[in-house]
Amino acid sequence: MYKQSILVGIATIFVTISVINYMHFQAPAQSTAVMALEQQTSSSSSNQTDIVVARTPEEKANLERFDQLDFESWNTRNWTLFQEIHGPDVLVVDFSGNTTRGIGQHLDWATAFTSAEPESKVLAHPIKIAAGNWTAVTGTLPGNHTMITLAHWEDGRIAEEYLFSN
User: Fold this and answer.
1) What is the DSSP secondary-structure string of 67-117?
2) Taking Cα atoms as reference points, which of 162, 154, 149, 164 lies closest to residue 88?
3) With left for phi above 0 and alpha for psi between -120 and 50, is residue 143 left, alpha or beta?
4) Could you give the domains of the chain?
5) Confidence of residue 48 (pLDDT cuts 50, 70, 90)
6) Rounded to whole angstroms, what are the CA distances from 100 to 25, 68, 72, 87, 135?
7) Has this prediction a pTM greater than 0.90?
8) What is the pLDDT of residues 145-163, one digit of tens each?
């Protein structure tokens, strides 16, 4: 539980720093060093603004791959794609602080979770932030629930994943 608290703190700091950086780059003289920084109205909700922060092609690709993970893999239960997006030795700490090591254990967890919670679908990613080989993505779930996934990427695949929810 102590490790989970530390990870929540790290995720909070990561998101806070990224939002501060985002606001800094919204100044009239925007930096050209920011390759992709978008603020757009979400098609899922006219009142919701999506924030996407990525500075390099690799960061942008990781965020796009994360969209694939949730919207194409998780929501449709495409376990082949799920395995392709995660590395073979992926370390995952779930919402309760339980840890899996390796794609086999993580796949077992995912299939058991979706069997127990069949309505578990990700509706939107309102905030997506990349910093180097780390991403922090918020997910909107049915029932007005929110989750945050902090992921570490290696060679275009998730090597570590930390899941938090309210």
Assistant:
1) HIIIIIIITTT-HHHHHHHEEEEEEEE-TTS-EEESHHHHHHHHHHHHHH-
2) 154
3) left
4) 2-165 (3.10.450.50)
5) low
6) 38, 21, 22, 13, 19
7) no
8) 999 999 999 999 999 999 9
